[in-house]
Specification:
The structure is a homodimer of 267-residue chains. Chain A has 267 residues and is α+β, with helices and mostly antiparallel strands. The first copy, chain A, has two domains: 103 residues, 2-Layer Sandwich (D-amino Acid Aminotransferase, Chain A, domain 1); 153 residues, D-amino Acid Aminotransferase, subunit A, domain 2 (D-amino Acid Aminotransferase, Chain A, domain 2). Helix content of chain A is 24%, strand content 34%. Chain A contains eight helices and 17 strands. In chain A, strand 15 and strand 16 form a beta hairpin. The radius of gyration of chain A is 19 Å and the shape is globular. The model of chain A has no long low-confidence stretch (mean pLDDT 97). Chains A and B meet through strand 3, helix 1, strand 6, strand 7 and helix 5 of A and strand 3, helix 1, strand 6, strand 7 and helix 5 of B. Strand 3 of chain A pairs antiparallel with strand 3 of chain B.
Chain lengths: 267, 267
Amino acid sequence: MTLINGIPSDAVSANDRGLLYGDGVFRTLKRAGGVSRCWARQYAKLAADCTSLNLRCPDAAMLAAELAQLPPDCVAKIIITRGPGARGYAVVADAMPTRVVTASSLPDYPSSHSTSGVKAHLCSLRLASQPRLAGVKHLNRLENVLARMEWNDAAIAEGILLDEAGSVIEGTMSNVFALRDGVLHTPDLSRCGVAGVQRDRILAFAAELGLKTRIASLPLDALMAADEVMLCNSVIGVWQVREFNGRVWNGGAVSARLRALLDERDD
Amino acid sequence: MTLINGIPSDAVSANDRGLLYGDGVFRTLKRAGGVSRCWARQYAKLAADCTSLNLRCPDAAMLAAELAQLPPDCVAKIIITRGPGARGYAVVADAMPTRVVTASSLPDYPSSHSTSGVKAHLCSLRLASQPRLAGVKHLNRLENVLARMEWNDAAIAEGILLDEAGSVIEGTMSNVFALRDGVLHTPDLSRCGVAGVQRDRILAFAAELGLKTRIASLPLDALMAADEVMLCNSVIGVWQVREFNGRVWNGGAVSARLRALLDERDD
């Protein structure tokens, strides 16, 4: 099920700047029981990301109505591009954005990913530093594609990416948290990485679990020394990292509590 | 006129990884009098760029035959993407690339751009350093889009981009050369930038004009001190920079000779 500008279709113009240049942004979210999860936060991010590319963001109510046409339980994706354009990088003032609202089935990750944690790969690709695009979930995702090519082992659930300086930034499809002595550390994303909705929620809810939070550079050594390491996104929720870069962590109480909290609430 | 996988169409799948992730590469070339200019070099670059993303490159003869269906005088563009894919960054082994072959009309740049040179803007956006993608003409072009947004003045023909260290890398749509004391300097593109076909041709032909070449870091100061500064791509050929960053250059003999040489030859 795909809607292009509100109309059922499975095609976009070959001239769309989303294809030509990756000139657009997207969101991935879960629909559960007919509810588009964390919609207020998802829309706020979409709008902010559109602003960072000087894209017009479609109206929230219109997008919500389109999401409501998708299956009640699915992974929903919204793509907003700058629309079809003449050749060349220049943006015309009256560009009409293209919006794609599409569903795919919920992935069948092993339930042990949630209950026992996952094995993660340390990616050799280093994320480039581009403050103008950092944090934004834009359509230029070749770094993620190349990083994901680094492993084929089905036992590895995610790859963790560093920046040029060797600090941890994110997973290929997730944000990263490291718990140490009651403080939840997550990388500063002002130079690279995607700042996801679940990262924001963890930062917002941590105090309810008695945790302090710290957004800062997170050297790989600090991650390795953590009491618990967690990955989050809107489809997986929270996965604890069980095995990474030669270390094994056992089941963590905080990961489980955060996973439950994100799942229970919708704000 | 657009061919998608050889069939006239103006649409690609909304599920194409070219749209979802910018997972693909492209070439832009000129057709003149029914000839797809510098085709051997263009195809070699396309194939090399495909290899760098582990994409299967379509056969040269098939692409040449598709180009031959475009108008005899046009700007031709070839896009190769990884094709439609399931959700997620992982690449399936049997991915069927999508190929787009499309024509647009030749741009009507003022003839003075070639004869008298152009005014260029110094972009404030700095190119990120990503050795894994440097040189490749891939579909992740948001830096170019953002850089091109920096000016609206129609008198400015191009923007020149620096890397984080302040060295000149390229124009938003062109490669850059700086002539100093009989040596043609062009930036090293091993960390960012797109290595275009006309850059290769200038490097190959320079000796015929009695010029040495040097590929190295090109600090902005060195560009400003050049005897001539040139921009090149497959549509514009060679433009001399007449005005940039507070300096004016008068008509340059070497720019004119290189422009003529690139135009006369097809190798």
